[in-house]
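Side project, low priority. Logging it here so it doesn't get lost.
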Amino acid sequence: MDPLGARSCFVDAESLPCWAGSPDVPDSAVWLEDTEPPGIGSPFPCREDINQKVILWRGDVALLSCTAVVNTSNESLNDKNLVSDSIYRYAGSELQEEMQKLKGCRTGEAKLTKGFNLAARYIIHTVGPKYKSKYRTAAESSLYSCYRNVLQLAKEQAVSSVGLCVISTQKRGYPLEDATHLALRTVRRFLESHGSALDKVVFAVTEQEEATYLHLLPLYFPRSFREEQSSLPLIPPDIGNADGEPVVPERQIRICEKPGVHEEDSEEDEGLGHDLTLIGSHAFARMEGDVDKQRRLALQGQMSGVALQKQHQRNYNRWLSRARTEDLSDIAALKALYQSGLDNCGRSVIVIVGRNIPVLLIDMEKALLYFVHMMDHVAAKDYVLVYFHTLTGDHNHLDSDFLKNVYDVVDAKYKKNLKALYFVHPTFRSKVSTWFFTTFTVSGLKDKVHHVDSLHQLFTAIAPDQIEIPPFVLDYDAQENGPIFQSHSSFSGL
């Protein structure tokens, strides 16, 4: 029996148009379809097979005829919002009885019930975070968990199609655009890894939400190479890890073994006002103390080595915090710094393109922020840097003071885990500058620098298919050194 007559309103997900197809891309797009791909690809390349699974639909998620629909609620699973109200209304009273058996749901978790009078067989209930800018990182992690756990539960239940509402309701205060970025990239990464488990993912949105989704979908689900390239400058610097999960700085939040009890600390930290702020319901984070007092002590030479290390860590975390909140899309668009594949020892390869750094035209402080933002999770493990000095001019050369500042700001893990710096196509002047810098300005870097005169030599350390090389570098090397052969004998010292 269907007392509400809802079944006449249900919409079959299979009948909705998918996201695939040839989009209209503005003429301002940099590359055309038939041009040679640039040296830097999008982290979210065009995938027709994935786009065929994605649907954007303006409508009530409760009316979708698919295997499962998502309900966004609160920890007690009794939230009053447009999505929940509609699902309860169409599912009927049996859902209310079933919900009482679940005994609530923690933020970020997902729980399953039957769909009852809905066209959907199941309802997946989840609880999005309450957003506060002060605890943005925690909110990002919780919202990611919502989407990931929903998709994982759908996979475990052999759900073929799922209707996703916007989990972060306006009532809980999460900025719509930030939430949409996280939702889209999480779904994209899940479909990349587990695409065979799901046939359809329907983003069910309101009229207000639709505009944001239409604007951001091409970043994560480009429908053509041209759309992929035109969207590339708009992709945020932070795209999470391989699953789309936000990368949390390792020591940005320090968890106390005994929440509520002050830990013992050095004399330098006494009286600095260790505020303990509740994060969620069970963890405490130590807040930063009197920074000015610590700086005075450092200048007076009264701080111990441990205290100086702590001060440096706080300074780095401040840079990282800024990097995660500022708009760095203009720096990202330069394509001067990007992550590539792995070297022959399995270490991450980071590429720096010197010619793409317009030193005189950009805000170098933002450049440092972008470097910190991108490198924080990479530097947690062993990595190598490849710097293409190819065809750089005076306006591309980084000042030694800036490089020293970078070296002083970054966390100790950057220096420890950097295993090699390959300086490709150096000039005599650059070799002298590098020697001077690594001898007199910084310590511990000199033995890691390798001057590489040709790509032949570079490929003895990094396979050609593991590094994205700008076309102009390939052209220059071919002119100077001849065609590229994968010889492994000329530079075994790398």
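Brief comment: Residues 177 and 215 are 10 Å apart (CA to CA).
Revisit when time allows.
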